[in-house]
Each structure stands twice: as C-alpha cells, then as structure tokens.
C-alpha cells in the first residue's frame, strides 16, 4: 500500500512524498529518520498507475553515487542509505526506501528494482544490474551505466537544441509563404489583369501551388505531424535508428 507523507528532514526542511509499505506502522518505520507531520494512505484506483520517469541526469547521479560507495567496500544497504541523504528528489527517496526494505527482506538489488512501482528504469540498466550482481561487478557496472545515461542525456539535449533552430526557420518560412499567397500574389494578379497582360509562368505556378496548399492544408499538416511523430518514436525506441541519425 502507498502512503503520502509530509515531514521535516534532519536539516529542518519540509519535505513530502509517497512511501510504499504493508502497514502504517511499517511506513512510520521507513520514515523514522524524519519528523512526520502527516501520514495517510492513498486510496487505490481502479486503473494501473504507470511508473514515474526520473530525469536521466538524476538517475545517472544516483547510480554513480552508489557505485562510489560500493567501490569503497561499503555494504549495499549502507550505500543506498548514504545515497538517499544526497538527493532531494522525492521519487528517488521513496524508491530507495522501498529497495532498502526489500533487500533487508532477502531480495537481490535487481529483484528489488524489478518489483517496485515508483521509478521506471530503462530495461538495459536493470538487465546490466542483474548480470553485475551475479558476476560480482556491481560497482563497475553501475558506474558504466551512470556514464551511459549521462551521455544519453547530453545527446537528447543536443538533439533538442539542434531541432529548435530549423523548426523556427521552417515556421518563419511557412508564415512568409502564407503571407505572400494571401496578400502579395492576389495584388499581382489584379495588376496584370488590369493591364490585360498574361501572368508569368512562375506566378501561375505560385498561384496554383497556393491553391493546392489551401485546398489540402489539413492533409499536409497531418502528414507533417505524423512524420515527425514517427521520427521521434523511432529515435527514442529504436537504438539502430538513433545510431544512424548520429552517424549521418
């Protein structure tokens, strides 16, 4: 069961979040290091709540911190507790509380992560943790995963920044073309008609293109949005596609 809490931490800072526990007594035990001012159960809903996504930079920082403590021969549970004291992210704190509880009950680090419904981990990270636990290389693998997530975050940030400028240029270009088609071209047509002159071929082409765009505007916009959606989906979900884009 999940419990929502408000409390003061050791620095007398007010915090709030959600903790998973089988009873309110267990929730209090998990939060014993805080001064609780409010603790109440969250009513169950009839639909499944999806796992929360944590910023990849925060997740990278967490894995790196745990790896440093493990490298210093600090036990896993102690490392998790120390890592919890170094984050202000409520979801991460709740996640660590749950994982610590599960490990104390006999679960492995991997199984504790797999059973929780607080933070969504990339599947490749949990798979790497499983192999690392079995081989005894947890600190090394956590550090590698931290570096990988950090690089992924940098690439995503650079990709977003790279798309902003072209998107702005495209918007301005479309606005200018729209302005010309609705204001400039009709005036040119009237001028040529008033002096009984045939329109230049390029002007006729522009007029026909404008009419085509106006008559099929919804289809054009839908196609562009669909194409962008497919591109973003493939970029996020298909590693080979992402690799191809960055290699071009």
Largest sheet geometry: 3 strands, antiparallel
Order of helices and strands: EEHEHHHHHHHHH
Query: Which percent range describes the beta-strand content?
Result: 5-15%
Structural class: mainly alpha
Lateral arrangement of strands in the main beta sheet:
2-1-3
Average of the residue pLDDT scores? 82
Q: Number of DSSP helices? A: 10
**Any idea how many domains?**
3
The helical percent reads 55-70%
Cα end-to-end separation: 49 Å
Count every beta strand, where a strand is a DSSP E run of 2 or more residues: 3
Overall 3D shape? elongated
What Rg, in angstroms, do the CA atoms define?
28 Å
Please mark out the parts with pLDDT under 50 across 5 or more consecutive residues, or reply none. Answer: 45-50
What this model shows, in words?
The chain is mostly helical. The chain has three domains: 2-41; 56-150, Up-down Bundle (Receptor-associated Protein); 152-247, no CATH class. The chain has helices at 24-30, 56-71, 76-84, 90-104, 109-115, 123-135, 138-194, 201-215, 217-237, 239-247, and strands at residues 2-8, 14-20, 35-41. Strands 2-1-3 form a three-stranded antiparallel beta sheet. Strand 1 (2-8) and strand 2 (14-20) form a beta hairpin. The longest helix is centred in the C-terminal third of the chain and has 57 residues, at 138-194. The two termini are 49 Å apart. The model is unreliable at 45-50 (pLDDT under 50).
